[in-house]
Amino acid sequence: MASQFSRLRDDLADDLEGQIAALRSEVSSLKQTMSKRRAAALDDARGHASDIYGEVVSRLQDAMPRIASRSRDARKVAQDNPVLTAMVGLAVVGLLLGLVMRR
């Protein structure tokens, strides 16, 4: 009777060890799969980021002539109307101080 229990215990222990080994193998396989997916997702994200960066640079380059033109126009208006420029500057400073003092 004791040998049957001993054999049963040994069989259960062997079965558990086999299940643990199978689980370890499956966990290892899952880690490898996740690592591959993570690398693919990272590469995909890099590709998208590169595309977005290229688009932003392209649009900025397209807008630079208009920005430069408007900047020259604003500089000319400021030079032609120094009193108005000073008043607008003071108004902006006053608004900023008002916002800072509220907080």
**Number of self-contained structural domains:** 1
- The percent range for strand residues is under 5%
Structural class, judged by helices and strands? mainly alpha
Tell me the helix content.
Answer: over 70%
Summed up, the helix count is 2
Question: What is the average per-residue confidence, as pLDDT, rounded to a whole number?
Answer: 91
Distance between the termini: 84 Å
Radius of gyration: 36 Å
The coarse overall form would be: elongated
Main sheet properties: none
- In the predicted model, the low-confidence regions spanning at least 5 consecutive residues are none
Q: What is the chain-wise order of helices and strands? A: HH
Q: What's the number of extended β-strand segments? A: 0
Task: Describe the protein's architecture and organization.
It is a single chain. This protein is mainly alpha-helical and 103 residues long. It has one domain. Helix content is 97%, strand content 0%. It is built from two helices and no strands. It has helices spanning 2-80, 82-102. 0% of the residues are buried.
Quick structural overview:
It is built from two helices and no strands.
Task: Explain the layout of strands and helices.
Blueprint: H1 2-80, H2 82-102
Structural descriptors:
2 helices, 97% helix
